[in-house]
Amino acid sequence: MVRERFQSESEPIVWEVWGEHGAILRLPVPQPSVAQEPIPCTAILQEENFALEHGGLLPELRLRFETYGRLNPAKDNACLVFHALTGSAHLAGTYGELALKGLSPLEQAFGPQGWWDDLVGAGKPLDPARHYVICANHIGSCYGSTGPLTPNPQTGLAYGPTFPRLTIRDLARAQARLLDLLGVEKVTVIGGSLGGMVAMEFALLFPARVNKLVVLAAPPVHGPWARAFNRLSRDAITADPAYKGGYYSEQPLGLQLARSIAMLSYRAPKSFAERWRQTPEQGESYVVYQGEKFIRRFDANAYLTLSLAMDTHDVGRGRGGIGIALERLQPIPSLFVGIDTDVLYTASEVRDAAELAGGRYEEIQSPHGHDAFLIETEQVGAILRSFL
């Protein structure tokens, strides 16, 4: 994390950069993080074929995951947090030197600090003293779970571009297997962006296992606007000669451009204007820089796999339409959180989903667009605390 302080210690307003995100923030009074150093774990969930919705098979299913707190005797205090497109299982805390060294180069490049650290810990909305918090890397990703970089047990070689096609429902079913392994019977599911899509699908697939549902900045269907951004990002990768049909030896520069394109949908014009009104060319430099950083910490085939999975998202598919599907969620206490400046998944989309699901709707006020669910942790924390 890099912080540039603009005022005195008594008025902590900073320009803060963490991971792939940056914003001008007024810092809250610091709170302690998770008490113990997080331990990355890997679970082999099935040694036989894991059937996928589109007909593919995974001979072996592995999930990288982390847990915080303990499962209570009733086995119902668990909170399962689903990460976004390029997130990881490292939700909170800071890895020690030994833990970091034991991870893959891409996981090391992701960094030692958890991606939602401000919300997990003593006295925070997800408090390990009360909750058994779980976060797992999605299958198809590149941070320890079965994905394109994983050796195929049948060939001994990395899947690469032969990795089977996934859907959001596949991602949800895989994490349900993890709950089985951990002995969790009922769970509160929480997710933002792609993670919110998985949370909705999990609740529809396994309603009897869900205590509460929290969806942040995610729609019930991946519509034409969002799909267009995904298509451009994928084309940026596959059109790069260095992609070599997916059999590359180093990450193609097309992945860098893909991330830069995506960043335009993750932020908002107001955010750029506030930061670079006097130096507009720096807005261009910002998205290029984000792409340059990203290529060091993610995999092109994993990006394609998860991007295509997002495009399958439609809670109404095979369920009689979006309205009928969301009505099935009405028995589950639910919270839907929109963002007033989100140009990727608009606040109105999220609000409409909340109404159909009979859920509560809250809205983050922020100039930062879609990424506000990661940036505005004080607002998010207050909203979560009042619901959980």
How would you characterize this protein structure?
- With 388 residues, this protein is of the alpha/beta class.
- The chain folds into two domains: 13-30 and 226-305, Rna Polymerase Sigma Factor, Chain: A (Orthogonal Bundle); 41-225 and 306-386, Rossmann fold (3-Layer(aba) Sandwich), CATH 3.40.50.
- It is 34% helix and 18% strand.
- It is found in: Cytoplasm.
Give a quick account of the main beta sheet: strands, pairing sense, barrel closure: 8 strands, mixed
The count of helical stretches stands at: 13
The proportion of strand residues reads 15-25%
Query: Compute the gyration radius: what is it?
Result: 20 Å
Outline: globular
What CATH calls the topology of the largest domain is Rossmann fold
- CATH homologous superfamily of the largest domain - what is it? Alpha/Beta hydrolase fold, catalytic domain
Number of domains: 2
CATH level 1 name of the largest domain: Alpha Beta
